[in-house]
Amino acid sequence: MAPKRNSQILVVGITLFAISGAMSLAVREGWAAIPEMVMFALRWAAIAVLTVFTWNRKSLTTWILFSMVVGAEVGNDFPDFAVKLQLLSKIFLKLIKTIIAPLLFGTLVVGIAGHSNLKQVGRMGIKSLIYFEVVTTLALFIGLGAINLTQAGAGVTPPPDTGETLPTAQKQTFNDVVLHVFPENIAKSVAEGQVLQVVVFSIIFGISLALLDEKRRRPMLTFAESLSETMFKFTNIVMYFAPVGVGAAMAYAVGHMGLGILKNLFMLLGTLYAALLFFMLTVLLPVALFFRVPIIKFGRAIAEPVSIAFATTSSEAALPRAMEQMEAFGVPRQIVAFVMPTGYSFNLDGSTLYLSLATMFVAQAAGIHLSFGQQMVIVFTLMLTSKGVAGVPRATLVILLGTAASFNLPVWPIFLIVGIDELMDMARTSVNVIGNCLATVVIAKWEGEFGKEKPSPAVLEAAPQHEG
User: What are the tens digits of pLDDT across the range 162-219?
Assistant: First the structure.
């Protein structure tokens, strides 16, 4: 079908959704009495039209975005059924998590031992850490400024005791953060999903392999090359299930919480989304322009991993695809393999912004005034505690609880945040992925290596085709 015809189909689908939304608003405000069945039929007619558009596109990214729309509608119209679909999203996440450790090991070992350029590894490490620290610090200050501007926590009424419990949080000391970086048992690190520990082991293993003579290095290097190519193929197979897993995740989120949850704590939710958008426009976009990153092409490359991250609220779920896309975009594999997984512990832009914002929300809700100096202490504490916790379930919540304990803040406002945490997690996780993808391009440009290596056939095969 001609692209123009398909674009017209898309416009029709969006128009039907817009009409349905206008009808819902009219009913809610009491302006008109429209039967729910009419709006129900209109929404599903829009989905039927979008199905035709998606089928004609034959693009995995389009299918994933379409599945998010269908999932949200299923969650809204059939919440009991939608909640049961969580099984499908969990299957997808489990399959993705099996990819991460062998993929990181294979790509890092090949990147280090295959090139035998240990000086480059050192340079990349220093440049990456400098970039990560600058960008995440800016994110912390933007979050702090946003919540001070909107005062979203002021005047919040304490909720009744629901008997709900939050995870136990221990204060993160400097020693705890540093020790968390290093693996004591690589099998345990893999089993627990400790990405940073797998990265450290793989880097040391790659350096050790690079120091061997050619005869002893070649067999292991060949194995690592074969392993990384196999895992990229593995990713391609798993990604065929992505629309189902992503759609199921969205259906569960809406069915579990309901679209009405958007009304609750709207100010906090709006503050976070606005702050993240401000961060992308004032920090990430200028960085991309400074390093002459082709914005439109970059946006197309990250569309798929970001949509996966948004729907699943999991940075790990997007990692294998993001690595493939950045290599196809022109970043050499050894840089992708080093920078991106390291960034998952040190460059969580969305999460760090959220932590400073949420901590101040807790203080405002409790009526506790914090001076500028106290707020600076919180920011510098979060600069330490927000690093090196990848793989911890609900990590940002655990850090938030630990920060509250450190500064004698009450816990009850965190119960309010938990109510919409999944909606907030969608946004901050997406920004985490965008920030890490951009970081790989920045380091590649900084090293003068961008576009110099041709991606492997497995990666080119995985890259989505974009229609003109």
Answer: 444 545 545 556 676 677 778 888 888 888 777 678 878 888 898 898 888 888 888 9
Residue 158, phi then psi, degrees to nearest 5: -60, 135
User: Can you give the pTM of this predicted structure?
Assistant: 0.72
- How far is the C-alpha of 312 from the C-alpha of 306, rounded, in Å? 10
- In angstroms, rounded to a whole number, what is the distance separating the alpha carbons of residues 454 and 438? 19
Is 305 in contact with 379 (CB distance < 8 Å)?
no
Report the pLDDT value the prediction gives residue 462, as an integer from 0 to 100.
57
- Amino acid, single-letter form, for residue 440: T
- Residue type (1 letter), 423: L
CATH number for region 119-193+264-462: 1.10.3860.10
Alpha helices in 211-348 (DSSP H): 214-239, 242-257, 266-279, 285-290, 295-312, 315-329, 333-346
Q: What local confidence, expressed as pLDDT, does residue 141 receive?
A: 92
Largest CA distance in the chain: 80
The tokens for 297 are: 């092409």
What is d(CA 43, CA 107) in angstroms, rounded to the nearest whole number? 45
The CA distance from 353 to 399, in Å, is 13
Contacts of 311 (CB under 8 A, 6+ apart): 64, 68, 71, 246, 247, 249, 250, 253, 426
Q: Which of 361, 347, 335, 378 is nearest to 421 (CA)?
A: 361
Domain parsing of the chain, residue ranges: 3-57, 119-193+264-462
> Any residues with CB less than 8 A from the CB of 26 and at least 6 apart, and which?
32, 34
Name 221's Cβ contacts closer than 8 Å, sequence gap at least 6.
109, 110, 113, 114, 209
Q: In a 10 Å sphere around its CB, with 0-12 CB exposed, 13-18 middle and 19+ buried, how is residue 103 labelled?
A: buried
**Gap between the Cα atoms of 120 and 108, Å rounded:** 13
212-216, 292-296, 328-332, 380-384: least confident range: 380-384
Distances (CA, A) of 260 to 76, 125, 155, 305: 10, 45, 21, 27
